[in-house]
Design brief:
It comes from Ramlibacter monticola. By secondary structure, the protein is α+β, with helices and mostly antiparallel strands. The protein is built from two helices and five strands; from the N terminus they run ααβββββ. It has two domains: 12-79; 85-132. It has a five-stranded antiparallel β-sheet with strand order 4-3-2-1-5.
């Protein structure tokens, strides 16, 4: 049951949204500065551009919220692994053990597994999980 990331890092959406707003305002001001005074910008075209930008910004916010939801879901699923027997990839290869703890590093869940030989391996990411029993 390997779970990997399906989207960009958490801060990526906010930076592109701010950059998009800045670029839009620069284009708008440039259009207004260089427009023909005898033929001003059509109000309908202006409103259409504003509506398109608003829709784009809302879409980016929705993507950010969905990314947060995915990260929260991964953390909640990891809690369900506590006490379960798992196969994991460790330095020596594939090992079987029991999940004894779960911690979050940022938004990424990390597992602590007690291996069959008695060793305890900490900070195992979900990507190193091979099977859950």
């Amino acid at each position: 049951m390997a779970i990997g990331s399906v989207a960009a890092p958490a801060g990526a959406g906010a930076a592109s949204s701010a950059l998009g707003l800045r670029e839009f305002m620069n284009v708008l001001l440039t259009q207004l500065t260089f427009q023909d005074p005898l033929k001003p910008m059509d109000n309908q075209a202006f409103m259409a551009q504003m509506a398109q930008f608003s829709a784009l910004e809302q879409s980016q916010q929705l993507n950010d919220r969905m990314q947060q939801l995915i990260e929260n879901q991964a953390a909640l699923q990891s809690i369900g692994l506590l006490g379960r027997s798992v196969d994991v990839i460790v330095e020596g290869g594939r090992s079987t053990g029991k999940v004894t703890a779960m911690a979050l590093q940022g938004d990424a869940p990390l597992l602590t597994v007690s291996l069959a030989g008695g060793a305890v391996v900490a900070d195992i990411p979900l990507s190193q999980l091979l099977a859950v029993r």
